[in-house]
Structure prediction request, 958 residues.
Amino acid sequence: MSDTTPAAETAAPHRYTAELAAEIEGRWQDYWEEHGTFAAPNPSGELDGDPELAVRPKKFIMDMFPYPSGAGLHVGHPLGYIATDVFARFLRMTGHNVLHTLGFDAFGLPAEQYAVQTGTHPRVSTEANMATMKRQLRQLGLGHDRRRSFATIDPEYYRWTQWIFLQIYNAWYDAAAGKARPIGELIAEFEAGTRRTPDGRPWAGLTEAERADVLSGYRLAYTSQSPVNWCPGLGTVLANEEVTAEGRSERGNFPVFKANLRQWMMRITAYADRLLSDLDELDWPEAIKLQQRNWIGRSEGARVEFPVHGAADGEHAITIFTTRQDTLFGATYMVLAPEHELVDTIVPAAWPAGTHEVWTGGHATPSDAVAAYRKQAAAKSDVERQAEAKDKTGVFTGAFAVNPVSGEPVPVFIADYVLMGYGTGAIMAVPAHDTRDFAFARAFELPMRCVVEPTDGRGTDPETWDDAFVSYDAKIVNSASAEISLDGLGVVEAKAAVTAWLAERGIGEGTVNYRLRDWLFSRQRYWGEPFPIVYDEDGVAHALPDSMLPVELPEVDDYSPRTFDPDDADTSPETPLSRNEAWVDVELDLGDGPKRYRRETNTMPNWAGSCWYELRYLDPHNTERVVSPQAESYWMGPREGQPAGGVDLYVGGAEHAVLHLLYARFWHKVLYDLGHISSFEPFHRLYNQGMIQAYVYRDARGIAVPAVEVEELDGRYYFQGQQVSRLLGKMGKSLKNAVTPDEMCAEYGADTLRLYEMAMGPLDVSRPWDTRAVVGQYRLLQRMWRNIVDERTGAVTVTDAEPDEDTLRALHKAIDGVTGDMAGMRFNTAIAKITELNNHLTRSGGAVPRAVAEPLVLLIAPLAPHFAEELWARLGHTGSLAHTAFPVADPAYVQDETVTCVVQVKGKVKARLEVPPNVSDTDLEALALADPAVVEAVGGAPVRKVIVRAPKLVNVVV
Prediction:
């Protein structure tokens, strides 16, 4: 570290120290706030009166919504925020109108859990957390337009979240048009008779409840009695994405069970194809695109009907989706998910004659076997159920289905490896050609039939095989009946033939399936957005009119949902809102006179507010509409190179690939379809920053110990005399390795912290935090300060003398390199080039020319803004440099004076010439052939060819 002893400070009272940095930083933060330095004008009214600003290119830069944690920020959190601030500042200096702001995603479980523990209202603790975070972010000098900031818990914000929900609720997806349309247009079709009701009755003949049921099958937001992830320990249901691979809740680590409950759902599956195809329009990391494609999981195959054996024709049939319809003749049994709706219908009272003992699970009746197995399966997560476990479990339902191509009866089982969340919740099992089916068939002594001819010499008797034979490039065998034969066909030809055959008979058709499921949109919690929905005495849902928005959260005495024994699956939700009867039971006039209604007592998930916040940044104080068309078109509308429109740069973690990003895209597309916005994607360019990691030290019990108290001795680590282990991992309060920005700012200043985080490595790569290394950037600022300011007197020491040529070359090479690095978000290499220029000035000695000092200050301004503002002011400029033009390199000084050209004769280097970088091919050839060493090497032999690659290579062929 630099010398900060009292004697040194007395000798250099104007040295750049942490104390001086704190005074400078606070003063400039006040200046920016007072003068609205980073206020981004909107097109309507603000740009109109400023012709110069109106022609500037715009850039909308966004960070992913932060959640205001009670622990505040550690130094890992601001990495992305500092990066976007550096980039936004650079863009302003290169002539852009930049929108860069930050709000808070403030609904969610942590504040509610804190409220349950302490009795503090979630709003009180959340607002206190936001105040802490705002102070920390301001301390870092982030140039946000604070006029545009908001929190999702603000009623004036979630009023529009509720409004968007109603737009989705009051819309349906018209597959023929390929877009969402208002539900009123669908009702008009039913009323006119141009669209038939499901049972064929006229629309006027249906009751209100029956009409509501019909429309629920079309609405993009609807309620459904469906299998959900029920977590008794939390007292709420969870989306698939909120359940860990171990089948436990992401928050709290409680067991999660499958249960059938009435929940709000979003019909995101209607947009599956568009969500897939529009990825091609986006500038996103390929890894994120791949995750979304895999999550949507589009697959082409066929839907096939298997009639239930013994049932009346068409009364019961099991529908399956398969991508291998060519193997239908090999289907020797079927498996339903334990939750499948047909299970209760097809289970007979007694086991059929001849039922194998291994099929029954030791139960006296099929219903007993099914009930016991269902309870066992409910305790497993989807991931556990799909895992390649050694032991396959399941039970026979007692029912048989009919293979439609062979006419043979096949037993129907339930097994946990089949999920309701994919396909139809039922499969035809072809054990000879599917690994899981093969293992199940062996365990339950089920027959196997080879229908795809093995190419590895194993023969065609599956009883002799060790595993299934799986191939997409082999001939079909043993697949013929009186009506159809697939024998001898390849897989592709067989698929086409059997699909056509099924379609002709009305027992199947070619179809597309998706892994994506509709989005579970209810939570049994308090701290979330209330639904703008009420129910009449018949249980029919009614949307509230816009005039009744927002539906504000009421006060409750108990913030916690009713929780249960974490292992008790036979429970159901009870929400905190349901306990406020005065709020739940209301009298409203919805247009047909005052009536009694009951409010929806679930709340929206914490994802709701972040599904559209980019739009509210554009027009945060609009009380008439979600966003003005002018503002949305200006900041996010489609343009050259961005056909889908969207935010110009969105920076955040890769962990949101299939949660927030997929949900936000869905909401945005619905709003686009309904004509509210002009862009059909929310985020044009996505950038995933890496993570700042830290060493975690654990004692012999595996408990984390304070990292600052660990000592290193001979390559080993000790805490209070006891050896501890060290592992690089996340930084966090619970791991006792967190370093706060407050600590770093107090010791070095915010600009040093900013520089260090940007200098640690490429932005998209994770990197370890090292407090001891921070001092390197502190010294850079001290040296730069010393090159411009006299540490003893505080006077500016620059001279008006012209810089020498070496210095001009160093300056313009730095400008050229830093400009490219800034544009490419390579901030670490930009800092290296600035350091190199400053070191050149230090080595040169004497006063630094103003013509070099001022560009140097501007180069570092996006990275260390307070420091640069202060030096700019001391150099005699008034106001802020935030919109001052970034330096432009002179090409004449960027190129070297001479370049070394290698001359080869017969492939061997014979000479090196120093030539101008812009030397022509003709001149370079002449210089090379005239060189004495080349003349000697040629030795009078005829020159057949001269290959010139100016300015660096000449190859002489003799």
Summary: The longest helix spans residues 805-823.
